[in-house]
Amino acid sequence: MKRRPVLLLMLSMLAAGLAGPAYVAARQGKAPRTAVPYYGPAQVLQGLHRHWTAPRATEFAAKAAALTPALRQLCAAPAASAATAQRAARDAWREAMLAWERLSAAPLGPLVQRRSLRAIDFTPTRPALIEKAVAALEKTGSEPALDRIGTPAKGLPALEWLLWSGPAMPGTAACRYALLIAGEVEREAVALRAAFAELAAREAGAWSEEAVIAGVSELVNQWVGGIERLRWPRLEKPLRAGRPAEWPRAASGATGASWAAQWQALRALAVVQGTGAPQPGAGLVPLELWLRGQGLGAAADRLAQAVRRTDARIRGLAPGGRVQDAARELAALKYLAESEIAPALNVRIGFSDADGD
């Protein structure tokens, strides 16, 4: 059965008030193993934005807003308190980075439409371009037009370089430049917060059929793409290259924390984190619950088992640890998602920018 007719059938049943646990039992010919409500695709989408993307975007906006004053204090700090101000700025950067990792682990909706990953987290950063921008600022004394500065010299990676490798210190052009690009990150974070808040405010019935089909397809595809992005560019590729500087967040020593934040987000979108299942519209519906709500308990069990195996490999992982084992479990999880989970949910996996080398 083709994906569109199946999803349209589910939507029509939801609108008619026919979808529920009784429907799940009827289509399976037996009672469900667990008391899980039926979740229509529109309710999955509503739960996603109300209880995941919008809160994560709000968190990131708050952390990005805290980074700007921390850098301002660093730039103006007297020599006696420069070290303390630098630590505070670095801590603020770490908090913003981790909030960003949680929001962008599976880039959805506005993150794609606004090309936010490129604007905020272009990697690898280009130190030569950063130094060129800093030299221009030092020479002219006036703030450069940020739209004329290449993306590889901006965003969170550039700030990391300025705070650890630069470093940006009080009274320097490098510090003023760091403050400029932190302001740009903050503005993008505020725009993302507003965009996700608008999605979260929609009722399930307000989504058009086309928007629902596109939204749930994007959820599954971007979740799979996030698994691959963590596996290859963040874990396995630097390991194979044997270049420690290519580990994510290597300059700040936050590689392990970065991996953990991304994985925690991907895990939350995949499996139940607490006990019980929320009523439709009352909470996030991870892929496991979406499957169980349709009576696909065996597929849900296999997904939960694969996530547990991956979690055991990534928990506490740091460079020098068993990175290859973690990458192998991520690859197995991706294969399961592509070969069984997506087809069970009538979603076609498309090409992602996480694919390739």
Question: What attributes characterize this protein structure?
Answer:
357 residues, mainly alpha, A middle domain of Talin 1, 14 helices, disordered N terminus, disordered C terminus
Shape: globular
Could you report the average pLDDT, rounded to the nearest whole number? Answer: 89
CATH class designation: Mainly Alpha
Number of domains: 1
Helix count from the secondary structure assignment: 14
Cα-based radius of gyration, to the nearest Å? 22 Å
The helix-strand sequence is HHHHHHHHHHHHHH
CATH architecture: Up-down Bundle
CATH superfamily: M75 peptidase, HXXE motif
* Major beta-sheet overview: none
Oligomeric state of the chains present here: single chain
CATH topology: A middle domain of Talin 1
Give the terminus-to-terminus CA distance: 34 Å
Q: Total strand count, please?
A: 0
Low-confidence stretches: 1-33, 353-357
Structural category is: mainly alpha
Q: Give the DSSP E fraction (strand runs of 2 or more residues).
A: under 5%
Helix amount, in percent? 55-70%
